[in-house]
Amino acid sequence: MLKKYIPPANILFMVLLLMASGMIFLPPHARAQNTQEGHINSFVYHRFGNSRYPSTNITMETFKEHLQFLKENNYRVITLGEAAELLDSPAQIPQKTAVLTVDDGYKSFITHAVPLLEKYGYKATIFVCTKYVGRSGYLSWSDIRSLRKKGYEFGNHSHSHEHFLNLSDAQTRREFKEDLSRSEDLFHRHLGYQPDLYCYPYGEYNPDMQEILKNRGYKAAAAQKSGVIYTGSDHYALPRFPMTSTYGEIEKFRSKARMKALPVINEKPRNPEIKGENPPGLTLRIDPSAINPQGLQCFVNGRKNCKITRRRDTELIIEVEAKDKLTTRRTLYTITAPSKDGTRWKWYSHLWVNTQYGE
Ligand SMILES: [Zn+2]
User: Fold this and answer.
1) Cα gap 180→244, rounded to integer Å
2) Sites in the chain below the pLDDT cut of 70
3) C-alpha 104 to ligand 1 mean position (Å)
4) I need a labelling partner for 194 at 20 to 30 A (CA). Which of 82, 164, 314, 334 fits?
């Protein structure tokens, strides 16, 4: 007979697991230290294992490497809906939190991605265009119902996947609302609920569209600008890092998963549409406690073709402007800086949409 009580191996394992996840044994102050500033690294995928479309595809080998990295580094993978709620609640966001989102609702999600996600025990948020559901190459309503039962989250990616900004402001509002009604009706008819997450087609939006979503009860909307979600993020333009053949290599994924948000207190203009001067100027007020301002850098669609002007010395206000006119439909200004202690990079992107150009 044993003199001492030895807990069974499975209980020890559970305790270790709970300790590792920070659920027990951490006094409040220790947990606070462990949370950093509440950053959520989110990623957007489109197609899986379909090399015919390299600009929107991720190979299965690379996708597996992403999931393996998240697992080995103890990331908590949550849905975008959970992320939006965490941003609203005073509860702090655990360190190393990731969100996997999938746009357009292609069939390869269920045939290729789901078996792997199930192996790793991760969920994802999928944005579907209701007009395309059930067409060849796309998920069907019954696929979506069965995936929802397994815990996958589905949000609205519009009915028609239109370029809403190609219209006048008044027409954009009207068309956007009509399109929302069509997609919401189909969500109700086939799934029995009102979606509360939205994803802008092509990542294109303006403040009117954001306001409409808010008024219709959406709790968040996903954009297509790279960046890290944090407590100061605009809920109706949440950033995501794109994961494709070009951007999805494991080294790039690793650095994006470790990236922190550059805390922008104020941004002018907020509207992505280029309404006046081209190249447009972007004014940002940044939290000076978070970064080393000497290390600020800017990029235009990934190229260092821009300048940063420090507007005031007392506060960290900068103006960012491309050196050349923006001549593509969508352009990202990306601003990065090292953290004060130099151990992390911080990232912020602003999207510009020039409606004079096609896709
Ligand atoms: Zn899309």
Assistant:
1) 28
2) 1-37, 89-91, 312-313
3) 5
4) 164
Q: 65: CA distance to ligand 1 center in Å?
A: 24
DSSP-derived secondary structure for 107-173: THIIIIIHHHHHHHT---EEEE-TTTTTSTTB--HHHHHHHHHTT-EEEE--SS---GGGS-HHHHH
Question: What is the value of pTM for the model shown?
Answer: 0.88
For residue 130, the CA-to-ligand 1 centroid distance in Å is 12
Could you give the angle at the alpha carbon of 309 between the alpha carbons of 307 and 310, nearest 5°? 150
Report residue 75 as tokens.
């990331």
Which helix or strand (DSSP H or E) is residue 89 part of?
A: none
- Give the helix, strand, coil percentages of the chain, each rounded to 5: 30, 25, 40
Indicate the angle between helix axes 169-191 and 141-149, nearest 10 degrees. 70
Collect residues with CB below 5 Å from ion ligand 1: 103-104
User: pLDDT of 260-280, one tens digit each?
Assistant: 999 999 999 999 999 889 999
